[in-house]
Amino acid sequence: MSLVWREREQLAALAGSTGGAVQLAGAGRAELLSTLSPAVSVTCVPSEQHLPHAALHQVLQPLLGGLSTVSSPRRAALEAALGLAEGVPSVHVVGLAALDLLAGRGVVVVEDAQWLDAESREVLGFVARRLAGSGAVLVVAADVPVFDGVPALCSADDLLHAAEEAAAAGRRDELERILAEVRGRTSPSASARWPRGCRPRSTTAWARARARPS
């Protein structure tokens, strides 16, 4: 896929900002990632998808030297989530602890986020929606966007291809998530969040993908 300069410029502007998050999806994400110089970069793998907080541990492990600076309740929750202490961690409190550790760390990249474990997906989604002004930028790359409420850079053609693959493989949950992404892009309220020109070219193609038997 030929990437437009607008996407590169948007990513560069975010990387140089005071904080935020973006999702990179589709075939062009590797080329966009190559323009970054992350402070932390991790790659999710299928074999750890069922291990609670596995991806979160990857992201935060290089930063755990600063754990003593995190307030006691948040530190205790994060330690429980990462298997460093006993306890049942709260997504909200673990997310706040992660925000404390990530503050001022620059660009953090999570690749192949389609393999995020469920617990890490919850926590990192919580974090991604609260990074403005933190001095940290979270860049999450996946086949399709994995977080709600976090801007994404990807082409409509990439989403259409992903929807057709999900339908052919009978992955109904993934297909519904992709279709929800398209509906969000085409709603008036989404126009300020998504790059211009990222609308599906053929609504009938989307209908065919959704109707394909599983």
UniProtKB/TrEMBL annotation:
Domain of life: Bacteria
Location of region: Disordered: 184-214
Protein name listed in UniProt: Orc1-like AAA ATPase domain-containing protein
